Amino acid sequence: MHPMLNTAIKAARRAASLIQRASSNIDHLRIETKDHNNFVTEVDRAAEAAIVQTLLDAYPGHAILAEEGGAKGESEYTWIIDPLDGTTNFLHGVPQYCISIALEHRGQISQAVVYDPNHNDLFTATRGGGAFLNDRRIRVSKTKEMADGLIGTGFPYTTFGKLDMYVHMLKDVIQKSAGVRRPGAAALDLAYIACGRFDGFWELGLQPWDIAAGSLLVQEAGGLITDLDGETGYMESGNVVAGTPKVFAQLLQTLQAHK
User: Fold this and answer.
1) 227 in Cβ contact with 233 (< 8 Å)
2) Sequence-ordered list of residues with C-beta below 8 angstroms from that of 66, at least 6 positions apart, any chain
3) Is 56 helix (H, G, I), strand (E, B) or coil?
4) What is the pLDDT of residue 33?
5) How many angstroms from the chain centroid is the CA of residue 56?
6) CB atoms near residue 165 (< 10 Å)
7) 203 exposed, middle or buried (CB, 10 Å; 0-12, 13-18, 19+)?
8) What would you report as the CA-atom Rg of the chain, rounded to the nearest whole angstrom?
9) Buried b (16+ CB within 10 A) or exposed e, 179-192
10) CA-based nearest residue to 186, from 112, 52, 117, 84
11) Residues 6+ apart with CB under 8 A from 60
């Protein structure tokens, strides 16, 4: 295993320990509202601090891009961090959230960790080295038809200007797939594509830390991921479409009809 990936795993587990201890005492957490339907807690900040310290202790010259702390430092290596993806789920006791850590090297994601502490699911990937779930090699599903596929999604909760477009997309995908699910943690949704639990996924208005680690997992597991134009600008636009090669093509075509 790549030493940088090992360090990211160590950081994710340290953050998970803080998060899981706090999960039994949610009523006493300090909660702030960043935007409508967008919350941050002292746990998000503590988990992020633990991740950043672990990474910079090992690689002090690396840069950081994190959800709560923003961008820090300049380097050809940048760690992209979401310390608690699925904060709303966490606050309501819904066990669907994760820690997401990715390493970008010269513009490409090279290492990825998505850790679900509730199920002890550790998703990892190194560029060119495949994707893994708890040390077991994973691949996207063999589903070829969107009509047979389970599709994940996320509602646009801060970009309400896209809500009407999204509703039309959702209606069409519901009618053309075997089912649609909205679990509430995009990084984990992308990991589910990688291990075959979902056959396709789309969401609008995401942030880089929602996407970075999951995008490498999807690619290393044999899936495809693009923006709504079928291009690689999803980290910039925040609009993501992913899936098995066959389902991806059908899902993208369905969504593009409503752009």
Assistant:
1) yes
2) 48, 51, 52, 72, 79, 80, 81, 82, 83, 209
3) helix
4) 58
5) 22
6) 15
7) buried
8) 17
9) ebeebbbbbbbbbb
10) 84
11) none
Question: Binding site, residues?
Answer: 67, 82, 84-85, 210
Binding positions for Mg(2+): 67, 82, 84-85, 210
Q: Which amino acid is at 220?
A: E
pLDDT 10s digits, 47-83 = 999 999 999 999 999 999 998 889 999 999 999 999 9
Name the amino acid, one letter, at 227: D
CB 31 within 8 A of CB 132: no
pLDDT of residue 54: 98
Contact in structure between 149 and 173 (CB atoms under 8 Å): no
Q: How many CB atoms lie within 10 A of CB 236?
A: 10
Question: What's the pTM value of the predicted model, to 2 decimals?
Answer: 0.94
Domains of the chain: 3-138 (3.30.540.10), 146-256 (3.40.190.80)
